[in-house]
Amino acid sequence: MRPKFLLSGFWVGLAVSSQASGHHSFTAEFDGNKPVKVTGVVTKVEWQNPHVWFYVEVKGDDGTVTNWGFSGGAPGQLMRRGITKSVIQPGMTILVEGFRAKDGSNNGSGGRVTFPDGRMVFTAGSEDKTPEDAKGGKP
Amino acid sequence: MRRPQALGTILCAGAALAAAALFAQPKPAAIPRTPDGKPDFSGTYEWPKAAKGDASCKCSATVFDRKYMAPLKPGGEPFLEPRTGDPRHDEPRDFCMPAGFPSGMLSANAMQFFQNKNYLTLVHEFQRMTRIIPLDGRAHRKDIEPSFYGDPVGHWEGDTLVIETTNFKRWSLDDYFYTDPKEYRMHSDAMRTIERLQFQDASTLSYVLTIDDPKIFTKAWSQAFTIKARPDWDSTGLYEYICEENNRCPGGQCGGQ
Questions:
Q1: Residue A91 forms part of a structural domain
Q2: What is the ipTM of this complex?
Q3: 20 to 30 A Cα–Cα from B90, which one of A46, B27, B35, B104?
Q4: Which residues pair with B185 in a beta bridge?
Q5: Range of the domain at A39
């Protein structure tokens, strides 16, 4: 991921893993055939091991509010790539693209985050399924 | 008659020289060495990576490629074990149990090695796994309980460090279950591993891992990996990895937000 990050300046690799547990994997927890795309306001960021989690409050057209939780890589993996916890902060409005949890909950892998100014943070790791995979853009 | 004989001799000698040049192990120009002349593996590294074209895993880890494995032993212990629905069995790492060796060693996180005359200490950022390898010629410890990471001892064969590890408890072999979440690949409590570590060049280690598990396989098998040195990671070193910090499955009871 490093070259891609360096080239684009916006792409940031995280190793995605669990939805509701300690440490585990994309395949075990997320459904690669169920992409999810939501826009909302970040309410909380857990910059903790084993996986970073961030939560997004999403307002539907009918006014209903849904809270989504997205997981990313371990803080150390991210920091080694130059990504600090300031990348995603509470109050930010973000677009998250990822994959839904297999259990049908409002959790997911945060495959990619886009900020209002167009910056994109690639929130999936080099060996995990990403929105690019779903488009056939990555082996 | 003399002429052809002479020509044959010359040709044979030429072929021998060519073969020697082809297969000769070029001595690494300037590998780091300890004061007593042994290769010095101290430094910061990436995790072991499989050769190009080998099987991969969308799971932030390197996994073994089935093509390198020996045939399964008829009537042996099961290699593939289905999930049962019990998280304690199905995915112990969900609630922060150890990855064990060799699985944890292959996780996609940074490693830092520290070496002196008597020990090589391997610290892996994933789960802050620490392996302390005695290099002083001692034998394996006796009468200890089988463990997740086994009991390693190392010795030198020229510039190659050979690490033999025994006394494992039965545990998952690698992260294969992230590829096929229905099944695990297990190793038995009879597994013995041999790691052969040497400099391939000044910034790359050759890492050949042999799995000798007579309860599961008909014979020992090996896969070769490479480990890249990352001196650019030296300045920050390893980061803390306390899985329990945000464990969503304390005691195996998995919860949501």
A1: yes
A2: 0.72
A3: A46
A4: B80
A5: 2-129
Which residues does residue B186 pair with via DSSP β-bridges, in sequence order? B172
Tell me the pLDDT band of B171, cut-offs 50, 70 and 90: very high
The verdict on a CB contact (< 8 Å) between B242 and A20 is: no
Q: CB contact, 8 Å: A20 with chain B?
A: yes
pLDDT for A15: 32
Q: Which residue in chain B is spatially nearest to A73 when comparing CA positions?
A: B60
What is the residue extent of each domain of chain B?
A: 30-230
What tens digit of pLDDT does each residue of A17-62 get? 333 345 655 666 778 889 999 999 999 999 998 888 899 999 999 9
Does residue A135 fall inside a structural domain? Answer: no
Burial class (CB in 10 A: 0-12, 13-18, 19+), B94: buried
**In chain A, which residues have their Cβ closer than 8 Å to the Cβ of B179?**
27
- Is the domain B30-230 a CATH 3.50.50.60 member? no
User: How far apart are the C-alpha atoms of B166 and B163, rounded to whole Å?
Assistant: 10
Does A69 sit within 8 Å of B257, measured CB to CB?
yes
Residue contact A79–B178, C-beta within 8 A: no
Q: Is residue A67 part of a domain?
A: yes
Residue of chain B whose alpha carbon sits nearest to that of A76: B239
Entry pTM: 0.79
Q: Is residue A29 part of a domain?
A: yes
Q: Per residue in B142-157, pLDDT tens?
A: 999 999 999 999 999 9
**Quick one: closest CA in A to B61, which residue?**
A127
